[in-house]
Amino acid sequence: MALMPVSDALAAVLAGAEPLAEEMIALDQAFHRVLARDVAARRTQPPEAMSAMDGYAVRAADAAKVDAQLTVIGEVAAGRPFAGTVGAGDAVRIFTGGVVPAGADAVVIQEDTIADGKRITIKEAAVTGRHIRPAGIDFREGEVLLHKGTRLTERDLALAAGMNHPQLAVRRRPKVAILATGDELVMPGSTPGHGQIVYSNGYALHALARSEGADTIDLGVAADTLAATTSGIRRARESGADILITTGGASVGDHDLVQQALTNEGISMAFWKIAMRPGKPMMNGQLGPMRVIGLPGNPVSSYVCGFLFLVPLIRAMSGRSVIHHRRERAVLGRDVSANDQREDYLRARLETRDDGTLVALPVNHQDSSLLANLAAAQALLVRAPFAPKAEAGTPCEVLRLPA
Ligand SMILES: Nc1nc2c(c(=O)[nH]1)N[C@H]1C(S)=C(S)[C@@H](COP(=O)(O)OP(=O)(O)OC[C@H]3O[C@@H](n4cnc5c(N)ncnc54)[C@H](O)[C@@H]3O)O[C@H]1N2
Ligand code: MOO
C-alpha cells in the first residue's frame, strides 16, 4: 500500500486548525504570547523634542562660535519642562530626557562649556538639531508597530509598554494532553525489571509543546489494554484538551491498541501511516473538538513527529503568522546512500566552514530508538523519497532543532 507523503500528512494535521479564542492579558504576563490583533501606538514618542544629553539648550546661531557667552535663564529636567522661551543670548540648563524649551534648536553638552554662575562660555560650536531627539522620532500615535500573529519577544513587551498599552489581546494557549502507552515503561529513577524500559518520550514532548506556548496535561502511562487506553483518551476529552498526543501502540503488533481505542471512541481518522522515517505508523484524526496525533513509541520517532507535526499545529492554533519550520541549505558532510519510498529525517550535526557554508553530518546510526544520537543532533537532514545516493559536498536541506 502506498504510504501518505509527509507534505500531505502535514496538510491533514493542519486542516481547519484555526487560532483559538482571544483573551486580554496584562503586559507582564504576555511574554511569548501571540498577538490576536495589530497593536497601534497610543501616543507619539517622544511627544515633544527632547534632549539626548546633559548640557544647555540654546539657539544654535548664538552659540555657533567658540567663546560665545550666554546667560542661563532657567532649568529643565526630565519631567519638569521650562515654561519660558529661549531668546537671543539665552541658554537653559537641560538634562537628558528634558523637553527642549521653546526657542532653542540645539543642545551644547556641558563638557563643551565653562560655567560661571549664570554665565556660560561655549567651547565647541553648537550645530542646529544636535543632541535633540525630535518629536515622534521613535513612533507616532496610531502607527502599527506590532502585528497580529507575532509571538511577543521581551523587546516587543518594552515597545508595547512604550506605546502605552497596559494589556494586550492574545490567543488562548492550546492545551496539549500527552498519554503514553506501554506495559514495559517505568519512571526514571526506578529499578527497571527484566525487559522494562525507562519512560522518556513525554519529557521531550511536554517541553517541546511548552516551548511553543502550549499548556500541557500529563495523562501518565496507560497499560497495553483497551480499557486503560480508552480511559486515557476519555480523560483527555474531560480535561478539555485541544490536542491529544499519544505515544506508542501505534504499529501493527498485538499490543498496539491506540488506533482501536480511538476508533471505538468515534475518531474521524485522517490518516494512519506515512512515508516517513522515523515515524511511519503515525496517525491523525479528530475526536469531537479534540485533535489527535498518535505518535509511534520509538523515542526518536515520537520526538521527530512531534517536532514536524505538533509544533506547526500548536503554532497554527496559537494564531502565529509563521507556523512552518524553515528549511536551510547546507552541504552533505559525508556520503549518503540512496533512499527508499520514505522521506528520511536523519539526525545530523552541523558545522560551519570558514566561508560560511553550513555542513550537515548525519550521525552513523539512525535507528529510531537511539536517544543519545538525538540529543547530540543539531538538525534533521531531509532526504526526499527515492533520493539517489549522494556524495559529500552535495547540496542538501536541513531543519535546525531547538538549541
Ligand atoms: N511488523 C511491523 N512492525 C513494526 C512496524 C511495521 O511497519 N511493521 N513499524 C515499526 C516502526 S517504523 C515503528 S516507529 C514502531 C512503532 O511502534 P509503536 O508505536 O507501536 O511503539 P511501541 O511498540 O509501543 O514502542 C516501540 C518502542 O519504543 C519504546 N517506547 C514506547 N513508549 C515509550 C516511552 N514513552 N518512552 C520510552 N520508550 C518508549 C518501547 O518500549 C519500544 O521499545 O513499530 C515498528 N514495528
Ligand atoms: O517509523 Mo519507525 O519510527 O522508523 O522506527
TrEMBL record:
It catalyses: adenylyl-molybdopterin + molybdate = Mo-molybdopterin + AMP + H(+). Pfam families: MoCF_biosynth, MoeA_C, MoeA_N. Gene3D superfamilies: MoaB/Mog-like domain, MoeA, C-terminal, domain IV, Molybdopterin biosynthesis moea protein, domain 2, Molybdopterin biosynthesis moea protein, domain 3. The chain crosses the membrane at residues 300-317. Pathway: Cofactor biosynthesis; molybdopterin biosynthesis. Its EC number is 2.10.1.1. The keyword Transmembrane applies. Residues 177-316 form the MoaB/Mog domain. It comes from the Bacteria. Keywords: Magnesium, Membrane, Metal-binding, Molybdenum, Molybdenum cofactor biosynthesis, Transferase, Transmembrane, Transmembrane helix. GO terms for biological process: Mo-molybdopterin cofactor biosynthetic process. The keyword Transferase applies. GO terms for molecular function: metal ion binding; molybdopterin molybdotransferase activity. Its cofactor is Mg(2+). GO terms for cellular component: cytosol. SMART domains: MoCF_biosynth (SM00852). It is an enzyme of class 2 (transferase). InterPro entries: MoaB/Mog-like_dom_sf, MoaB/Mog_dom, MoeA-like, MoeA_C_domain_IV, MoeA_C_domain_IV_sf, MoeA_linker/N, MoeA_linker/N_sf. Catalyzes the insertion of molybdate into adenylated molybdopterin with the concomitant release of AMP. PANTHER family: GEPHYRIN (PTHR10192:SF5), MOLYBDOPTERIN BIOSYNTHESIS PROTEIN (PTHR10192). Belongs to the MoeA family. This is Molybdopterin molybdenumtransferase. It comes from Bradyrhizobium zhengyangense.
